[in-house]
Specification:
single chain, about 240 residues, Nucleotidyltransferase, domain 5, 5-stranded mixed sheet, about 25% strand
């Protein structure tokens, strides 16, 4: 049994795998992570994080059977990126996961979470980089934070009309329709360079976007656990 620990900006996940088969995924508070790992009692594991939690990191080090994610690990894909030391762990894991699930194909991974990341891994398992922009919630908060009168609008998982009739409605329209237009345009731009490209949506708002956005001539998939699948493959590649 393998275990994958993924500490994101807003959510912590622990997943167990039997070789390459995903068994369970647990969404946890930070203080629940170590006890969950102990209950799983894995043979080995991999730890990935975008925010520092010293208690978890020191506890995992004491277990002695985990590798900590690093771009220095052996990778099943080639990283064609100029500043690998700054490349997000989740972006690498997503690219690996896409290459595992859809090998020998061009894949565009769009991770729609706190930020929206766009990443391309081609049919030869070469990662080419991509783009980063603010996610839904970040855009809503920034409009409130950087202005004196605009209200803080909560994200609603519904497609708003193009023309808002209230200030809150206008904000919701601008943010949601703006993100959808961005995703469509970037997808079109990337598919001009890579033929027959799969579009893979992941992250917290992927199902919402998948329900609205469709692309001609492209397969589109919503895969909530893509990052975990990629981390597990990196683990298997290094043990």
């Amino acid at each position: 049994m393998n275990v994958v620990i993924d500490i994101g900006n807003t959510l912590t996940k622990v997943a167990s795998f039997d070789n390459d088969r995903l068994i369970d995924v647990y969404r946890l508070n930070d203080d629940e992570v170590l006890s969950c790992i102990q209950k799983i009692n894995p043979q080995c594991g991999i730890f990935s994080f975008v925010r520092e939690i010293p208690e978890i990191q020191s506890g995992i080090k004491k277990m002695g059977k985990f590798i900590f994610f690093s771009a220095d690990l052996r990778m099943p894909i080639e990283l064609n990126y100029q500043s690998i030391e700054t490349l997000g762990q989740d972006r690498i894991a997503n690219a690996v996961g896409a290459n595992v699930l859809y090998p020998k194909q061009n894949n565009l991974i769009i991770d729609i979470g706190t930020c929206i990341t766009y990443d391309v891994v081609d049919e030869n398992a070469v990662y080419h980089g991509g783009a980063i922009s603010p996610g839904f919630d970040m855009r809503l908060r920034s409009l409130h934070h950087y202005t004196s009168k605009l209200p803080l609008v909560e994200m609603s998982l519904s497609k708003p009309p193009k023309i808002g009739k209230t200030t809150e409605g206008s904000i919701h329209s601008g943010v949601v329709n703006g993100v959808l237009a961005e995703i469509k345009q970037i997808t079109d731009d990337y598919t001009d360079h890579f033929e027959n490209m799969n579009v893979i949506l992941t992250g917290g708002h992927s199902s919402f976007v998948k329900s609205i956005v469709e692309f001609e001539k492209n397969g589109i998939f919503a895969l909530e656990n893509l990052t975990l699948i990629g981390l597990n493959e990196i683990l298997r590649y290094n043990v």
